[in-house]
Amino acid sequence: MKRISLASKSLALAILLAGCADTSRLTDRGGYRVDTSVSSLNQNARVRYLVMHYTAVNDRRSLELLTRGAGSAHYLAPSVPRVVNGKPVVLRLVPEEKRAWHAGISEWNGRSNLNDTSVGIEIVNPGFTVEAGGRRWHPFSPNQIELVALLAEDIIRRHQISPDNVVAHSDIAPLRKSDPGPLFPWEQLAGRGIGAWPDRPVVDKYLAGRAPDAPVPVLNLQRALAKYGYSLPQHGGVDDETTRVVSAFQMHFRPGDISGRADAETEAIAMALLEKYRT
Ligand SMILES: [Zn+2]
Fold first, then answer.
1. Helices 200-207 + 264-277 axis angle, to 10
2. Does residue 171 sit in the same domain as residue 230?
3. Domain span at residue 239?
4. What's the CA-to-centroid distance between 141 and ligand 1, angstroms?
5. Count: domains in the chain
6. Taking every annotated instance into account, which residue ranges of this chain make up the domain N-acetylmuramoyl-L-alanine amidase (predicted)?
7. Upstream peptide bond of 233 is cis (omega within 30 degrees of 0)
8. Known catalytic residues?
């Protein structure tokens, strides 16, 4: 039986290669034709990551920089999205199958140069202004977030992007970037299935009765963050690089305190994320 089956498969392939198969699946490409009647089972999406940004400049300047400047992104969510027949409109600047230049030097979970494998969404938002008390972050409008959520849901579904691969620019380039900042509503979006979020009971389990702001050995946190996906040293010392990475993690998962200090709650959140997404 096996021999017959193999023989019939070989015959089908031979017919196909000889050009006797169904001609309805032939695409004309000028000087030659492509037969798309057979498709391999062995394939997946090239896009593995979704990266969120803010532009730090206004609508006009954002569009200028992302279309004529040094960078680009697949999508741009305006400060006040236009609504056509009841549906908000996002600008698509680069087709998803092409590479946009939004991530720069970047690393996540052992992979680098995320421009190769990601879709980038830029959101018009001023970012922060430096004032006497420190940085003042500017909120996103509910209409912008609704548009970004609808867009992200669609991108995630089409490319089968896992929750832990929906990231901030500051997650993948923490020494250079702070966007989309601590006011980006990651928890709210995770409630709609967009991106990762730890389960509070699991965070409490790892907190194990400690005060949230109790100091912890930085080596534990360095190891946990590296295991989750961040690129950072694991030498047990508190240096500028570690503080910036911890702050980037806090901007995403504990926006109430983004000081970059290694504390018990930050460690517990990291452990809860590892339990949920890395086991
Ligand atoms: Zn960015």
1. 130
2. no
3. 200-277
4. 18
5. 2
6. 35-181
7. no
8. 122
